[in-house]
Amino acid sequence: MDQGAKVKVGVVGVGALGRHHARLYNLSENADVVGIYDVCSETAEKVAQEFGLKVFTDVEELAAQCDALSVAVPATLHHVTSMPLLKMNKHLLIEKPIAATVEEAEEIVKEARMRNLVLAIGHVERFNPAMDFLEKHAADTRFIEAHRLAQYPPARPGQHRRGTEVSVVIDLMIHDLDLILTMVDSEIERIDAIGIPVLSKTEDIVSVRIKFVNGSAANITASRVSMEPMRRFRVFQEDCYISMDYATHSGLIIKKNRVGLAKKEINLDEKNALAAELEDFLLAVKTTMQTGKVTDPKVTGEDGMRALKLAVDITKQIAEYNEHYGFKFAVPD
Q1: Which of 73, 80, 209, 295 lies deepest, with the highest CB count within 10 Å?
Q2: The pTM is what?
Q3: How far are the Cα atoms of 14, 98, 258 from residue 303, in angstroms, in the given order?
Q4: How far is CA 244 from the centre of its chain?
Q5: pLDDT tens-place string over residues 240-258
């Protein structure tokens, strides 16, 4: 593969998020979009017309013409969709979570590593300008507070509401779990979690406290039944407090100095986090194809599996908590 060659890509699943994968690949100088596939032909045709793309009616036919693909189907279908593509030796970017179960995630990671393929996981917040700043100040983190609140997903004809096939822990909180595991370099000592379903069959609102072996701790709240959206991440370090608002790409630092406390507003450069994620994936694929040696993307399959394992542990503890106290919830129709 020469330096100027483009990566031939396809997108499997062009719903709410996959549509943006197709759009941004189409704008990238590093990608040649072969086409798209969606189980709903009407959705595929609509996206294809919007961006001037080719629709494939068979996933393997699309994959056969691609070097790499984005997999943006529901989480419960990540494994069954991704494994055949990996066995065709295709580099993959799988939207978060990597899979619905840890066992499925382990199979995906093992297959990709065995075949020397790039495997990226769509934890897009790693590419948020707020996280760019936080990663540079990860040392000496003692306490993290994260809030990720969203409105209940809109209805979709003939389908479940987006994300509700899994707990809000795996749907939304997993973003912050990944960030926390990136910020705190320590094993987990204890987890305390509580959560309840409200409008879906899985947990819609969850509160978690994580205690790390090194003494650091994190409080995390996630909800998909909130009236007002919120995405905030606060980090307390030994000599400063950092507050970031992902939605507005803004924040502040309160730092201890010789005379007391100094406050500094942070104006972060705007960037499209998803576009940055896709470009990172394309670069990893391009370099791998040129050198014959796997170049890891910023968020690897192992990273995705680590976040999923923590998310699953949290959901298990919630189930044990509710069972212990005899909490039972009406299951929505």
Answers
A1: 73
A2: 0.91
A3: 24, 9, 39
A4: 18
A5: 899 988 878 888 889 888 8
- Provide the pairing of β-strand 217-223 with 205-212: antiparallel
The per-residue b/e assignment along 40-79, b for 16 or more CB within 10 angstroms, e otherwise, is eeebbeebbeebebebbeebeebbeebbbbbbbbbbebbb
Question: What is the rounded distance in angstroms from the CA atom of residue 196 to the CA atom of residue 148?
Answer: 16
Q: 7-123+272-299 in CATH: which number?
A: 3.40.50.720
- Predicted local distance difference test score (pLDDT) of residue 186: 93
The residue extents of the domains of the chain are 7-123+272-299, 126-270+310-324
Architecture of domain 126-270+310-324: 2-Layer Sandwich (3.30)
Q: Do domains 7-123+272-299 and 126-270+310-324 have the same CATH topology?
A: no
- CA dist 94 and 81 (Å) reads 10
Non-local (6+) Cβ contacts of 229 within 8 A are 149, 150, 151, 247
Q: Say how far apart CA 243 and CA 21 lie, in whole Å.
A: 29
CB 202 within 8 A of CB 153: no
